[in-house]
Backbone:
């Protein structure tokens, strides 16, 4: 079962309820971020955005700083895993592949697993697939994840995060077999 | 049009590699014009219309902000090529130190 919560990055106080599904409006698509800066108006649609935006540092008189998608993916992945209650990231298939890859020698777990981003010149939109732990309020968890991801990405990159879509893909119950098995030696 | 010699570009590459938060260069620094979208080709073979300068694509360590990383790289390039009018930096990837990665066992 997949539960999706969605809100704009700057509107933390108006997070939707746990039963809200992903709307068909500004979903994943090329119109979520505006890559060009020629027709971009920073105050046209985000009058409630805080004034802490630092994206102007990316385009300076000395030159331009471009950020690849994988950079934002890793920052968002690390910020998501920092939140208590997040067990893993990714859908079932990607988690299975990640488990397989982690058993190969010389490999490290992928930080961008379960994270998909669209990065423009000034803005970024992030989609997360999360496995939460049992007993955690999913609404509180999604708000905490969203807050941490927005803060981390905006602080580290200077990009404005327009939206963070969180899909709770599974609930981790726990490894009961390990707890119930008696010790083999005393 | 800004033109840099091979020796100067080698010096740029060496200076950028010596930055404390730069893990490695992706490709080689390219001199001339910068592509419109800001993403330089990996082999430095093609270029589009845009301001002249040097483009450097790097993989950095996780931790500092992108502005700090770009400032490090720009300072290194400016030291090696002081006459370059424009330095474009492309952060291609970040390397995360997995033991410091919170929440992962």
Residues:
């Amino acid at each position: 079962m997949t539960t999706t919560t969605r809100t704009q990055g700057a509107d933390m106080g108006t997070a939707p309820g746990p039963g809200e599904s992903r709307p068909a409006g500004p979903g994943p698509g090329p119109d979520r971020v505006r890559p060009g800066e020629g027709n971009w108006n920073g105050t046209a649609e985000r009058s409630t955005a805080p004034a802490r935006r630092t994206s102007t540092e990316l385009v300076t008189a000395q030159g331009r700083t471009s950020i690849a998608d994988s950079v934002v993916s890793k920052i968002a992945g690390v910020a998501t895993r920092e939140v208590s209650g997040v067990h893993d990231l990714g859908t079932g298939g990607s988690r299975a592949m990640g488990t397989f890859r982690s058993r190969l020698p010389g490999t490290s777990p992928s930080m961008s697993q379960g994270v998909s981003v669209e990065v423009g010149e000034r803005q970024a939109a992030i989609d997360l697939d999360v496995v939460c732990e049992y007993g955690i309020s999913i609404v509180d968890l999604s708000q905490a994840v969203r807050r941490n991801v927005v803060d981390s990405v905006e602080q580290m990159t200077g990009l404005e995060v327009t939206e963070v879509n969180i899909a709770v893909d599974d609930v981790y119950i726990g490894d009961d077999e390990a707890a119930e098995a008696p010790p083999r030696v005393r | 049009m800004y033109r840099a010699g091979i020796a100067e570009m080698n010096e740029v590459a060496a200076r950028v590699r010596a930055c404390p938060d730069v893990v490695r260069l992706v490709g080689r620094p390219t001199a001339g014009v910068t592509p419109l979208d800001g993403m330089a080709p990996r082999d430095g073979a093609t270029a589009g219309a845009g301001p002249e300068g040097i483009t450097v694509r790097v993989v950095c360590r996780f931790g500092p902000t992108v502005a700090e990383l770009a400032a490090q790289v720009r300072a290194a390039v400016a030291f090696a090529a002081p006459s370059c009018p424009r330095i474009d930096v492309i952060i291609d990837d970040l390397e995360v130190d997995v033991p410091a990665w919170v929440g992962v066992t």
Residues 124 and 161 of chain A are 5 Å apart (CA to CA). Residues 1-10+57-171 of chain A form one domain.
